[in-house]
From TrEMBL:
Keyword entries, A-Z: Membrane, Transmembrane, Transmembrane helix
Protein name in UniProt: Bile acid:sodium symporter
Domain of life: Bacteria
The keyword Transcription belongs to this UniProt entry's keyword annotation: no
Cited Pfam families: SBF_like
UniProt key word Membrane: yes
Residues annotated as transmembrane: 42-59, 71-90, 102-123, 130-154, 166-184, 205-226, 232-253, 265-287
Organism expressing this protein natively: Streptomyces sodiiphilus
UniProt cross-references to InterPro entries, sorted A to Z: Na+/solute_symporter_sf (IPR038770), Put_Na-Bile_cotransptr (IPR016833)
Amino acid sequence: MARVRRLAGLIDPYILLLLAVVGLAALLPARGAAADAAQGAATGAIALLFFLYGARLSTAEALAGLRHWRLHLTIVACTFAVFPLLGLAARGLVPWLLPPELYAGLLFLCLVPSTVQSSIAMTSIARGNVAAAIAAGSFSSLLGILLTPLLTAALIGGTGIFSPDALLRIGAQLALPFALGQLLRRWVGGFVTRHRAVLSLVDRGSILIVVYAAFSQGVTAGIWSQVSWQRLVALTGVAAVLLAVMLVLTHYGAVKFGFDRGDRIAIVFAGSNKSLAAGLPMASVLFGAQAAMAVLPLMIYHQLQLVVCAVLARRMAREPGQGGQSAPGDGSPSR
């Protein structure tokens, strides 16, 4: 019974909510004016989320984190070099294990930026360098606004998948609200810091809205007839292997480069995690009606990283010399 309770504790209720939203989109997809309203709500929710992240990140934290250039260079290399190389290597899985459409989504997963909130939460639980995780996640998200569309165009291709208009739309939805949050932090930063639950609700709620809008669009376009349950099982297995490889590479790479324990923890979580909150709106802009298929691998990977990294973070927190309790703010991250 105790083992069952521990297993249940690893299942984030938010994962069940995500699955429920996918089911709702399959049964009652938004169409016509409702689809336009859902897309507008998703765009506004993501913009608000990045505004709150900008308001939360203090200038002192940003400058302190950015001065640690070796750590940031390592995380950026993991996110935008090692991940894409592994994604390209997975091309050998087509078509015998993954169809081309799912492989394109897997490759897109390898191109999106790192997380903000999950990497911070996991690093905090494991008693790592939280300031570095904050700066690394924010820097990766902003860098991804430019690099993810460019890499998507270069490695996935397709007519109209990248254009100056797409880059402007992504920038307006992500970078501009973040910058505005930084500018207004003097007036709203204290409120955001004191009410972290607000940020968590916007984080989780925005992703649910974007998932519903994207999967509704996929249902109305009829793309789900292309995916069998066997393919979904295969995709889950591939995503699990990808996560395991990145966790091993980030850990031993950080040790090899001589980072201390706190930095190694930040590198492991920021270097191996991918952002659902940033990837979803980018996929909506870049893939249009095919966005649901494109984000399916990202959603599966996201759920795996939450469960696996939560276990790893708690184990790291119990290492000798670290005490037996989790760090303050221990909770289930949503990104």
